[in-house]
């Protein structure tokens, strides 16, 4: 694919949508062609620029897949903004612009990891788990993943496939609104017990938190209460959400 360089940092290029699909009732994902020259760490973010009804608009968006995979991927929680409407309407072959990669929210390849995600915050963490599985990294990775309801679990099939691909990867789900019947797992917000269960037996893990700013702050407080030093915590706060 031809890469057209755009002026000024961060580096940018035009690309094309490969696929567009709904993930859950309130989330949507696209895959985008990855130029050969584009490299990134698992998992940084880029700005993703789209043509919307109100003109061109860009948002910071975590890359939702590992650099070991053939395409780039993004997933969003839908809203009524012009940007999100344009995102959900994307179809194969539509043009987008990507600026990046940016950030240092990247998996440390030699230390066990506890990933903590709320809702759409799963995006960079899914990329990390894919990377570790594809590279067969010899580190245990546990994902603590909170969602409102079972049908809102983002990338559930992909996460289950990763658990099969890698014996070192395990997901601990919790649901915060469970009038739903049939859910045998944990309920309520991410709490001490769940985080301690995730970290059980891990030698000197790093904690990676990704989600809305309030989810990130709440989890940071929780980890502080458990005596986890801040130097062992990496965060990605999705500014733009409450
Ligand atoms: C590093 C990073 C990674 C992100 N990754 C994802 C992702 O993978 N998936 C995802 O769905 N979202 C992600 N976000 C959030 C995303 O950029 C949008 O802000 C969010 O999706 C809300 O968009 P909206 O169009 O629904 O909100 P809008 O209705 O457009 O905005 C809601 C309010 O937030 C303000 N706002 C919007 N964006 C920002 C911003 N970036 N910074 C400060 N204020 C803002 C608006 O002015 C408005 O007041 C990420 C954010 C960051 C910083």
Layout of helices and strands:
Elements: E1 12-24, E2 27-32, E3 45-52, E4 55-62, E5 72-77, H1 82-88, E6 95-102, E7 113-118, H2 122-134, E8 141-147, H3 156-165, E9 169-175, E10 186-187, H4 192-199, E11 206-211, H5 213-225, E12 233-237
Parallel strand pairs: 7-8, 7-11, 8-9, 9-10, 11-12
Antiparallel strand pairs: 1-2, 1-6, 2-5, 3-4, 3-6
Helix pairs in contact: 2-3
This protein binds flavin-adenine dinucleotide.
Residues 45, 59-62, 75-77, 79, 81, 83-84, 120, 123, 236, 238-241 line the site of flavin-adenine dinucleotide.
Q: If classified by CATH, what would the architecture of the largest domain be?
A: 3-Layer(aba) Sandwich
Intertermini distance? 38 Å
The CATH class designation of the largest domain is: Alpha Beta
H/E element sequence: EEEEEHEEHEHEEHEHE
Binned, the helix content reads 10-25%
* Structural shape: globular
Strand order of the largest sheet: 4-3-6-1-2-5
Number of strands: 12
| The CATH superfamily title of the largest domain | Nucleotide-binding domain of ferredoxin-NADP reductase (FNR) module
